[in-house]
Amino acid sequence: MLVAGLDAGSRTVKLVVLDDREREPVIFGKTETTYDPVSQVRRLVNGVKWDCLVATGYGRKLVQEEFNGEAITEIQAHALGARHLFPQARSVLDVGGQDTKAIALDAGGRVQKFEMNDRCAAGTGKFLEFMATSFQVSVEEFGVFALDGRPGLTINSMCTVFAETEATSLMARGHRPQDIALALHVSVVKRSLSMLRRTSVNDPLVFSGGVARNACAVSLIREIAGYDLLVPDEPDMVGALGAALHGVRLCLS
Question: In this structure, which CATH number among 3.40.50.720, 3.40.50.300, 3.30.420.40, 2.30.110.10 belongs to the domain 1-86+236-253?
């Protein structure tokens, strides 16, 4: 039996299809969400077969209605996916395009407590994407660009508009772009770490979501917080994997 998990996120739509006997992915897929997520989902699953489908992400209700499937929250999905990849995990930090989630797990892998920032782009992938554009650097390269920065500068505002103004002002004063980029990353990481502390998370910590592909963000979390940090090979696929795993449970029940 094949089980599909779809994570309809703000920036990308991710697909994972599992074989329920092995519980291992047989299909991976990803595409941009754009202004028409349902059409993008249709393109992504074109030719793909499944017996059960579970959706997650901010567009999960649209996907559920379109394909007559089930839906679970992003909190549930990332907890399931992270624990499957790392059975020793006790916490999850998911930094996606539109929101950030800090999740504490109990010894059995169940969600114990969580906190979510979903009202502002500050501290999310969208913030870093916007700032990368300001630096005329691709979002994929922005983390490596920031790793070349020297510490010492501070960005006080996490509002996207005001942070850009601060960055522009620092540039006008002759500071290196790499140093400013590092300061922006430090601001994002400190915001995420404050959420983790309020959620009382424990080691080991799984870093999921698109921002977990950012080398500077990964390095700073390890350096500032000292967490035993676990980063999946495909960190932005963790939610889709969790949705598919939930589907396996439904199929076997």
Answer: 3.30.420.40
Q: What is the DSSP code (8-state) at residue 111?
A: E
**Four-residue CA torsion sign, 200, 206, 207, 210:** negative
What is the total residue count of the chain?
A: 253
Structure tokens at 94: 């998911």
Contacts for 68 with CB less than 8 Å, ≥ 6 apart: none
3-class SS of residue 53: strand
Collapsing DSSP states into helix, strand and coil, what is residue 94?
strand
For the chain, give the mean pLDDT: 89
Q: 30 burial class (0-12, 13-18, 19+ CB within 10 angstroms)?
A: middle
pTM: 0.90
The ranges assigned to domains in the chain are: 1-86+236-253, 89-231
Q: Has residue 105 got a pLDDT over 80?
A: yes
- Each residue's pLDDT tens digit, 158-210: 676 677 788 888 988 999 999 999 999 998 888 888 888 899 888 899 999 98
**Beta partners for residue 91, in sequence order:** 104, 205
What is the torsional sign of CA 126, 132, 138, 143?
A: negative
Phi (first) and psi of residue 61, to 5 degrees? -65, -40
H runs (alpha helix) in the chain: 37-45, 60-67, 74-85, 125-134, 139-147, 160-172, 177-199, 215-225, 238-252
